[in-house]
Amino acid sequence: MARQLSREQGVTLRESAEIVAEFFSFGINSILYQRGIYPSETFTRVQKYGLTLLVTTDPELIKYLSSVVEQLKGADRC
């Protein structure tokens, strides 16, 4: 999702919102895992940004987080 952009091109507001929303999603997943809010067996490892990150496999939580992230992406229209 996050693309390498030339210095001349810059980042648009929409691209910035998408990057922040993606970062937010990984952050929330990390908090839910590290604080033990959801059982560790409901998370799987993914490679992103050169790191191993944990994301939920719980369908209801995925649905909820996707909804929240989509609302964040829409915030650039305000």
From TrEMBL:
SUPFAM superfamilies (alphabetical): The spindle assembly checkpoint protein mad2
Q: What is its main location?
A: nucleus
GO BP annotations listed: cell division; mitotic spindle assembly checkpoint signaling
Q: Which UniProt keywords apply?
A: Cell cycle, Cell division, Mitosis, Nucleus
Q: Taxonomically, which superkingdom?
A: Eukaryota
Q: Which InterPro entries match?
A: HORMA_dom, HORMA_dom_sf, Mad2-like
Keyword Nucleus listed? The answer is: yes
Q: Tell me which residues make up the HORMA domain.
A: 14-78
| Keyword Oxidoreductase carried by entry | no
**GO CC term (a single one):** cytoplasm
Q: Where in the cell is it found?
A: Nucleus
Annotated family? Belongs to the MAD2 family.
Q: What is this protein called?
A: Mitotic spindle assembly checkpoint protein MAD2A
Organism per entry = Sciurus carolinensis (Eastern gray squirrel)
